[in-house]
Structure formats: C-alpha cells, structure tokens
Amino acid sequence: MSLLDVKNLTLQFKTDEGLITAVDDVSFSLNKGEVLGLVGESGSGKSVTAKALMKLNASNVVYGDNSQITLNVEGQAVDVMALRRPRDLRVVRGGAISMIFQEPMASFAPAISIGKQMVEQLLIHTDLSKAQAKELSIEMLDRVGITEPATRFNQYAFEMSGGMRQRAMIAMALSTKPKLLIADEPTTALDVTIQAQVIDLMKDLVAEFQMGIIFITHDLGVVAQTADKVAVMYLGRIMEQGPVRDVIRTPAHAYTRGLLNALPKLDDLDAPLMPIPGDIPSPLERPSGCVFHPRNPELRPGSRYEVERPPLTEVRPGHFAALFPEDVAGES
Amino acid sequence: MSEPLIKTQDLRVEFPIGGGVFNRRVMTAVDGVSLEIPKGSFFGVVGESGSGKTTLGRALLNAVPIASGSAHYDDGELQLDLANMSPKELKAYRRRAQLIFQDPYAALSPRMTVRDIIAEPIEIMKLTKSRAETDDRVREIAAKCRLNLEHLRRFPHAFSGGQRQRISIARALACGPQFVVADEAVAALDVSIQADILNLLKSLQRDLGLTFMFISHDLSVVAHTCDHVAVMYRGKIVESAPTRELFANPRHAYTQKLLSAIPSLEIAD
Ligand SMILES: Nc1ncnc2c1ncn2[C@@H]1O[C@H](COP(=O)(O)OP(=O)(O)OP(=O)(O)O)[C@@H](O)[C@H]1O
Ligand SMILES: Nc1ncnc2c1ncn2[C@@H]1O[C@H](COP(=O)(O)OP(=O)(O)OP(=O)(O)O)[C@@H](O)[C@H]1O
Ligand SMILES: [Mg+2]
Ligand SMILES: [Mg+2]
C-alpha cells in the first residue's frame, strides 16, 4: 500500500479578478521510503499542491469535487480532504506530515527563540520530556551542520544567517520523525557543501525510518542526486513523470528538455544562458489545449496541442509524458 | 581596470550576543574586509553559510553599523565616507545604492498595484515633479525590465515568481541607482527564469553602467555572470580573483571544496 495517494487534485483560488486555477487534475503517489522530486517553473503549482496535503492553503482556496488525498499511516487510511476539526488536522499538520516551508523567515515566530519553538513542537507531537526535547533539538541542529548548536538554540530567527535559518527549519521538521516530509525548496539558501550534508541527512532518515519525502526544488542537479522519481509541473499540470534517471537522461517532453537546457554549464563559461523562450502566462489567462503550447518551440502552428489537451501517455515503463500517443510511438 | 566605486579597508561589523547588558559579548560577522569593487563591474561574493556575505552587503548599504575600518563610495560625482555620513549625504546615498531581495513574495506589498510598487521610491524621494512624470518614468523602467505595460494596474498575486522578481528589480532601479547589492536575488527562481533574470541584470550592467555586488551560493551562476569573485570564510575574504582565474585555479581549501561539491546531473548506476 502506498503512503500517499493523490488523485485528480484540482485547486483554484477566488480573487478579485476572477477564479485562478493553480492545480488542474493532478495525480501521483508515494511509497514509504521513497523520495519524489517535484520540479517546474515558478507558479506551476508546486507549493500549493504540497500545502493541500496538510490543508494549509489560504482561505480563498476552492478544491475540485473529485480531488482525493489519502494518507496511509499505521494501518489506517486518512481521507485528508474530509478533515475539518483542528484536532483531526493535527495528524497531517506536524504529526504524520512535517513541512519545510519555502520562506524560512515566515515559519519562525520572530519573538520566540528557535530552540523554544523546536521544543514546543516536540512536546505537542511526541512523548518526550522537556529535557529530552531540548537534547534532541540541539542534536538535530548539530546534524544539519550548525556549529555551536547549544548557543544557536537560544537565538532568534533574525540573528541567524539565511542558510542557518533554513537549516534550523529542516532540523525542526525532521525532529518529530514524520512519516511524510514535505520539503519546499529546502536548500535554496545553502551552498553546495552544506547542501550535500543536508541531503545526506535526509537520505539517512529515509533509510532509518522509512520516511517518504516530497522534495520540491527548481534544481535538477539536486533532484538527480536525491529523488527516486520525479514529476515535472507547469501551470498546474503534470507534464512528465517517472523514474528520475529515465526522465533526466531521456526527457520525453519539450518542457523538461527546456528546463535541462537552462541549467548553467560549468564546462563552458562562454555558453549563453538559455531560458525557455516566452513568458509564463498570467494565471488568469490559461492557454487552451496543452498549457505549454505557446512556448513550445518544437510545435508547428496549427498543431493538435493548441486545442486539445494531451493525456499522460506511457513513454517507457513507469515513465509518462503529456503527449499524444502518435508522438510517443516514434521514440525508443 | 576602472576606478573602484566601493573601497573598504579593514572593515568590521559586530553583533552583540547573549542578552546580558553588563557582560556584553560580541560576535564579529565581518572581520577585517578590504576590497575594491570596480565601477561598472559584476562583483560576485560567495562563501559558506554564515560567513558574513549578507552582513557585508548590508554594511555597504548602511543598513548595519560599521564597527571599525573604513568604506568609501566614489562614483565620480559624489564621494562618501560610508562610515560617517551626514543625514543629507545618507539621503543622497539611498538614491544611489539599492538592494534586490532574495524573496520576491515577501518584498512586494499585496495591496499595491505594480505601478505603485515601482513608483513608491520615486515618490518618497521626490524625484519627479508631477504624477505624469512619475508615470513616464515607471513605464520606462518597466519596459527595460521587460514587464508588460498593460499589467501595471494589476496586483502582484496575479504574477508568476519570475515576473514578480522583475517587478522588484524595476522597483530597485526606479531611483536610478549606481550600485546594486543583489543578495541571493535569483536563488529562489527556477533555472529558466533565473537565466532570463541574469541576462537582464547583465544587460543593465552593460547598457547603464551599473555596478553589482552579486551575493550567491551558486557557483555555476557566479561563473556565468560575474567578472570578479571574492570568497568569504568566517568573516574574512580568503580569496579574490577574476572569475576565470578563480575557477581554473582555486587556491583556498574552501574554494576547492565548493567547486568539487556541485551536484551534477550524472546519476550513478
Ligand atoms: N492565496 C492565493 N490567492 C490567489 N492565487 C494564489 C494564492 N496562492 C497561490 N496562488 C497562485 O497559485 C499559483 C501556483 O502557486 P505556487 O506557489 O504553488 O507556485 P510554485 O510552483 O510553488 O512556484 P515557485 O517556484 O515560485 O514557488 C500561482 O499562480 C500563484 O500566484
Ligand atoms: N541581526 C543580527 N544579530 C546577531 N547576529 C547576526 C545578525 N545578523 C547576522 N548575524 C550573524 O552574523 C553572521 C553572518 O551572517 P550573514 O547573514 O552575514 O551570513 P551569510 O554569509 O549571508 O550566510 P547565508 O549564506 O547563510 O545567508 C552569522 O553568524 C549570523 O548569525
Ligand atoms: Mg513554491
Ligand atoms: Mg545571507
């Protein structure tokens, strides 16, 4: 049985200017001990998808009727969409699921020390005593590479550098040993050496506790090094999905190829930086057909993708792409 | 090489630690930094987390006090001693030196239209005489940052992250600065938008002669954009060289470690 099943997730926001579709019929699943990488350009719906798993989206959110999120923990299937009462929601908020948020500054209360916040969260979600919680918190700060963890434990978020704040947040999220960890751009403020250390720590915890991880990042290098499988999103749709090696070595969708192409190359410093051409449309102006078609350099004018939405078609075993079957057959 | 726009000598910045009023201890975040940022350059600062990059940038923008040492600014027209400025000089400097934030979400007020966000610094500094003149200026800058002019009446939430980052760049450029500190300005952006924004910043450097201090932990980005790179470690600059030289021949152990740890797309079988 998988740890998490997301089926037909559709998510919109009510705004003054109209209804914004942020996620459009997305399905994926995650097993225990598995790492799923979620990538895609800004605004593609990665964060709001992740927040839906904890029902943490802003109050102007509207979920589609067919949206289904099932979390299987300790032999029980939790229907996340049906959770309403705060005490039921606690299961997915910091209990079975922990989230590392994209903005570290926003996740710590400014007037309470980092350590106090870590301890409070452990007292709520575990059976540890206060002394044990403090000891574990300092140990976790140490494991994410924060020097003098006992001193840092007493500091406030504003007293830490950007990277330290991010690591403190990772330490806090991991300390409760959740069944599912959602890490939203957890390493953007970290240099490569510390990033490698944090990634190793996450891998250790996956092996130790069979934790499942959803790793949201724009860094395909990080995805290649951490994830077992990857889903590539654009404007609320999954464009490509499959085993990480397969997707990165032989991307089937033009969008995935565009993302790979945009990575700066270290072996040729004169090579120009190559963004995917065109702008991401405003969420109020969703393109018809395949949402990526206006920016897809590989399509001819009048192509089927301008009007019809392509299904997720299996390209290789377990590897799917938003392509019409006739565009898949030719590939090997 | 051209004249330095910014020149520091033995610059130090300290923060008090551990509450007590009587036994005040301090930690030295920037510890004797001497550097020269040539006018018109794209000057990269890399280094370990907590090494003092942000603090150095904030000290040069007069956002944290300088404990000792000196820092000077000279754009040919205006010469300033950054450690000792009169209120009038500080006002002049605020116009010339700007910060681009890492986080475009937090930096933009959700209740202001894009036009008002870009116009705010112009209005606060009273750089124009009429609303029409402000509007002209906003449109000119927005076009330079390749923002759609029809979108100026919208609120930030209707924009994607990359467009929002362009809005915050337009805002930083609105008052016509000479010196821009970009602190992890592209870290939160996906690779495609990152490439787009970097191309934009480089064109501003070329066309307007702006000087950038580009703080980043991403070496491949730095390699592609900066003319010169300084490596910080524990509050000090441990290595400083033209980009090519630094990447071809890293001397300091920390630089070597950084270069060897870049995650690659290669996946072991
Ligand atoms: N409360 C809200 N009201 C209106 N629109 C919203 C709200 N929250 C998110 N959105 C919109 O939903 C879309 C998806 O946002 P999301 O934050 O998931 O993007 P993302 O893929 O995480 O991007 P990034 O890489 O920039 O973090 C965006 O267009 C965003 O503007
Ligand atoms: N307001 C403050 N009060 C106390 N200490 C501070 C404050 N601001 C920064 N520091 C400390 O100064 C040191 C340098 O921090 P700084 O933010 O400059 O690092 P950085 O090089 O930008 O790191 P990162 O890459 O993680 O952003 C850190 O030890 C940090 O804890
Ligand atoms: Mg996000
Ligand atoms: Mg910093």
TrEMBL record, chain A:
Signal peptide: none annotated. GO terms for cellular component: plasma membrane. One of its GO terms (biological process) is transmembrane transport. Keywords: ATP-binding, Cell membrane, Membrane, Nucleotide-binding, Transport. Residues 4-260 form the ABC transporter domain. One of its GO terms (molecular function) is ATP binding. It is found in: Cell inner membrane. Gene3D superfamilies: P-loop containing nucleotide triphosphate hydrolases. InterPro entries: AAA+_ATPase (IPR003593), ABC_Ni/Peptide_Import (IPR050388), ABC_transporter-like_ATP-bd (IPR003439), ABC_transporter-like_CS (IPR017871), Oligopep_ABC_C (IPR013563), P-loop_NTPase (IPR027417). The keyword Cell membrane applies. It is a peripheral membrane protein. NCBIfam families: oligo_HPY. Belongs to the ABC transporter superfamily. This is ATP-binding cassette domain-containing protein.
TrEMBL record, chain B:
Signal peptide: none annotated. InterPro entries: AAA+_ATPase, ABC_transp_ATP-bind, ABC_transporter-like_ATP-bd, ABC_transporter-like_CS, Oligopep_ABC_C, P-loop_NTPase. One of its GO terms (cellular component) is plasma membrane. It is a peripheral membrane protein. One of its GO terms (molecular function) is ATP binding. GO terms for biological process: peptide transport; transmembrane transport. Residues 6-259 form the ABC transporter domain. Pfam families: ABC_tran, oligo_HPY. It comes from the Bacteria. The keyword Nucleotide-binding applies. It is found in: Cell inner membrane. Keywords: ATP-binding, Nucleotide-binding, Transport. PROSITE patterns: ABC_TRANSPORTER_1, ABC_TRANSPORTER_2. Belongs to the ABC transporter superfamily. PANTHER family: D,D-DIPEPTIDE TRANSPORT ATP-BINDING PROTEIN DDPF-RELATED, TRANSPORT ATP-BINDING PROTEIN. This is ATP-binding cassette domain-containing protein. It comes from Tritonibacter litoralis.
